[in-house]
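Run log, item B.
One chain of 175 residues. Sequence copied directly from the ordering sheet:
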Amino acid sequence: MSDHALRFPIGKFEARETYSGQETAANLQKIEELPAKIETAYHLLQPSLLDKPYREGGWTARQVIHHLADSHLNAYIRTKWTLTEDTPLIKAYNEKAWAETPEVNADPHISIELLEALHKKWVLLLRELQPSDLQKSFLHPETNKHVPLDRMIALYAWHGEHHLAHLNLILNSEF
């Protein structure tokens, strides 16, 4: 398997200008179901596999799981900013550095528990939004682009599946 295929086992995210209500509902379903899928993968991982990367130079299973909680927590906060401020400039963060902070050495189940609670609250909020709310956007400081909430929902639905595929690569030792 090529390095690109290992990095992006489900392909790269391809943003669109708009998403239908049906597409957004399907993306919310993926976000809602992610914690249970990560929990299942976690229980299938032998302890020795937690520190195995999904590709040479890639994150370990432990780092991937902790990253999901960190990343989706940031997405939740970005959602709240977008709903409560006028096109907020969000704060970017160094994902690579966050994947190396000391708590990442802990049992990743703590991040799964965080994901479970976070996704319940986040999905509850997102499902209550009106179509006009889904067009509200934030400004990303690195790209200087406006990101509407419906696109962010699509991105994080993809993001969860993307990293779940990384965990499955480790489980299946496809590299």
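Observations after the first pass:
- The domain at 29-172 is CATH 1.20.120.450 (Four Helix Bundle (Hemerythrin (Met), subunit A)).
- DSSP finds seven helices and two strands in the chain.
Flagged for discussion on Thursday.
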